[in-house]
Description:
Ubiquitin-like (UB roll); 2 domains; six-stranded mixed β-sheet; alpha/beta; five-stranded mixed β-sheet; Cytidine Deaminase, domain 2; 282 residues
Amino acid sequence: MDSIESVRVRxxxxxxxxxxxxxxxxxxxxxxRIAGPGEDPAARFVTTMRTPGSDEELAAGLLLAEGVxxxxxxxVAIGRPEDxxxxxxxxxxxxxxxVSEQARVRAARLARGTVMGSACGVCGKTSIENVIPVExxxxxxxxxxxxxxxxxxxxxxxxxxSIFSRTGGLHAAALFRxxxxxxxxxxxxxxxxxxxxxxxxxxxxxxVPVGDGALMVSGRAGFEIVQxxxxxxxxxxxxxxxxxxxxxxxxxxxxxxxxxxLRDRRFNVYTHSQRVAAAGSS
Length: 282
């Protein structure tokens, strides 16, 4: 399924008009179904609005953030429905995740009967206690970065936003290595979906907890971005725009260095500033 759809528009600039083609980011529902390790049928867990692409990564990242998946062995298999009676369009908008019995039990307690919007994040979770268990330990990564490392992230993020460059309508999330090289970038109409895709990519590759990476997101940093980073073991989260107050509280409680307004060679460090070297140091 395509991530971009072309439509005809009438564009006006000043006193002139022209008919032309405009590219739009696609927004479609993705139904995530969960099944146990046996042959039992899959049950609907949630439907989320997303931009098609990297759907398996999105499902894995979302289920890790929701607490369904706790470790790589919880994920038995992931793929599209195989029922020949099912329409191809429905198959393209569905993912079946087969999990361990322990994960299936967790999913049954957490299953939602709603549709998540593309800006929803972890809907309904409104306090730190509901997002991160009280017994969870703060991240203790020794990763330390320089201001120059951070200044380079927005440029590298924008350079790789191929769909955004055509549509202007997508968010991006990217994971950077300690040397500043881009490890993974994903785009989606929702920044939390883009983050889930990045985290899911790492999870499926057996690289969670990450421990030594920095997550950069376009737009603002809501608490759900911090929560997803914590579950993936990512110690630094940076955003082009502002964090929310709950994002700051959550980052402080979970040991994450949270950086906002990272653009035009400036930024604010809201929590755990020890991971950012002072100007002029290395």
